[in-house]
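Page 47, continued from p. 46.
Same chain as before, 335 aa.
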Amino acid sequence: MQITVLGDGAWGTALAILLQQNGHRVCLRGAFQTNVEAMQRDHENRAFLPGVGLPPELAITGDMAVAMREHAPQAVVLAAPIQYLAALLEEVAAVPVSRPQPLFVGVAKGLQLETCRRPSEMVAQYLGSVPFCALSGPSHAEEVARQMPTAVVAAASVMSVVEQTRDLFINDYFRVYTASDLIGVELGGALKNVYAIAAGIGDGLELGDNAKAALLTRAIAEMARLGLALGGEAETFSGLSGVGDLMVTCFSRHSRNRRVGEELGRGHALEDIVSRMNQTVAEGVKTTLSVRQLVRARKVEAPIVEEVYQVLYNHKDRSQAVRDLMTREPKAETE
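Result:
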């Protein structure tokens, strides 16, 4: 198939490489012309995925019209960070496409800041009723690009769309499971970034393994409560886009969100941490605002989300946030 990947960050680049290796004809569209030219020259994305060669057959462009009209994709991978997705979709909508509407695959993890919309809701807003599938799970770009074993889940309300997405991506190192709970899969990918910041704070404070295990276990309970309130299925949060993505994001050295939390735990200011990240994005920082808004609107008990919010945006002392979690009113584990 002819596939266009919109977004030349680490994840978009890794997926473009994977799809090209799977035998598809792939065009990678980057938002920054300087990086596009560097990739065309060096056959490597040194800005976002250094050390991984790009296939010589991979087409690379900075022009949306080239990516969406000239390459006439049958499938489009939306790989921009969630807070840039609206602008990307506006660009896509502005390019007239003569062929039948392609399949859109969303791989961004998060919620739109102003509206709390999930990626599928944003696609519907800007593009109308198009085939859409979410692809999510524990999948660091650095490992996928090096063909390390990975398992993810594809979810959509229409099973034929799910199966088409699975068949595009699956190979001997990238296993794709299928699901129908689009809401739950998208929420799992968003929520885990908030809890990764909390896990990083614990690492920065050197709280130990017991504390981290307790945090992740209670995070799963919070994720499921909010997911159910928003129309997701409880079982989803025990799967790859829930527990799976939560574990990898909270433990991995590749996790930007965990790293932000670790720096916070060591006493550094959020503004300084974000400024040192250059062009890379820790989605959990902004997603915390959206998740807290949803939690309050739905009256869902989510004390970890609340403490992460207070640390990020009200400069609450990190150790005090931990004490406040530990000294809450005693409850049954199922509450």
